[in-house]
Structures are given as structure tokens and as C-alpha cells.
Design brief:
259 residues; alpha/beta; seven-stranded mixed sheet; six-stranded mixed sheet; 7 helices; globular
Length: 259
Amino acid sequence: MTDTPHPIIVTIIGSGTCAPSLRRSSCSVLMEIGPEKLLFDAGAGTIHRLLECGVSILDISCIFFSHFHPDHSAELVPFLFASKYSEQMPRKTPLTLVAGKGFADFHQALKQVYGSWIELGSDILSVVEMNTLAPDRLNKDQFSVMSRPAAHNPESVSYRVETPSGYSVVYSGDTDYCENLIALAADAHILICECSHADEDKVPGHLSPSLAGEIATYAGVQKLVLTHFYPRCDRFDIEKECRKTYKGQLVLAEDLMRL
């Protein structure tokens, strides 16, 4: 008999950026699918926030990186280092690191700096690179992950997670407006979309509220979750700006928010 497919439980681990903030940690999102716990990006503060919501690093089976900027990847070294020390350590359950092209070299460079302190061994740690020039797919027992190139860095990708029942959550990572994200997010239940700056502060490589709303509208997503806020966003009515282009369910992310 086939088990009943699980929905995807989403927790915003970090809703901020590189800017220091007591309110918002750097970027990270937790997705839980049955026993599987997937982490999307791991900026500074991720491990602390995971503990606040009752999740150990040993619970994480996969970490998906949207790109290599520090506010999305800086907690990788502490994560690997901590995996070698604890009452339950060293880690015995497999961990998969997933990112765009070039991540194997990025990971190797970190090992050249930190050496054995972050070495977990090939029997525990595996690295997967997703295509950064075309759509790609990774299949697991409990879920599948599709990716498409994002308009930010050469290695940037956005991810779509689906359960066997078709329940879907999309994580944009950092990106400017692009057709790839619209296609990836088509009819998704939730789109977790970066919204770094207000409309009048728009900068290349990032989205503003009205552009994020336009993507969500064209994609036909059921719920749009805006995240990756710089502190200056607090001076603007982000919801009002997004409502210029999007009329569906809208959430402004906060750390530890559960969806």
C-alpha cells in the first residue's frame, strides 16, 4: 500500500540579507516533507534559527544553495564543522549539497582553507551540481526538485519542490525579473520570492514588490511569500506596492514563520 503523500511544511529560517539585524537572519528556508528536512540556502544565523524551531543539523538531509554569495552560503562551514562534533556526532546520516555549476570547486576551495575540520567523507557527504544553462531535475523518494537558471549570478538557480501528489513550493533565491522563474513557478501552491528593495530602490539582479507580484500573477501561484528584505524596506509599504500587480494570497516573511 502506498503511503499518503505529505504536504510541504515551510518555515522561514532567515528573511533578511547581509545587513546585520536582530530581527532578520540571513537567507534560509526549511521545507519538511514527511521525514525529510530540506534547507534552502544557509546564511549567517541559520543553525541558531534551526535550533529555535526545534531542528538539529542532523535532521537536515539536503541543503540547496541558490548561489554562492555569503548571505546565502556563509553557514555552510559552521554546519559541516558542527557535524563533526556533538553527543551524536560524527554525523552518520547522509547529507547532500545541491547548487549550480561551480559548486564542487567552491566546496573544494573551502576544504583547502579549513581542511579536515569540515571533511565528512564521501560515504556521508555528496555534492550535486544543477545545470545553470537549462532546466534540470533531481528525483528523491519523497520529493522531486526542479531548477531553472536565475537572473543574478552565473551559478544562480531557482528551485521548485514537488511531492508525488503534486504539492509544490518554489524558492526563487536572488534573481531579477526573468521568464525562467515564471515558468518554474507555474501554478505553484507557494512561491517564496526575494524582494530585496522597494520599487523606487530597485537595483539590478534583485526584485521589487511589484515585480515579484507580476511574476506571481503570470505564474498563477496560490500564495506569494516575499522575503530577503533589506532594512530600508521597513520604510515602505511593501504589501501595497506588491498589490499593484498581485491580488492573491500574500505573506511578508518573518524569521521562524511557519507556513
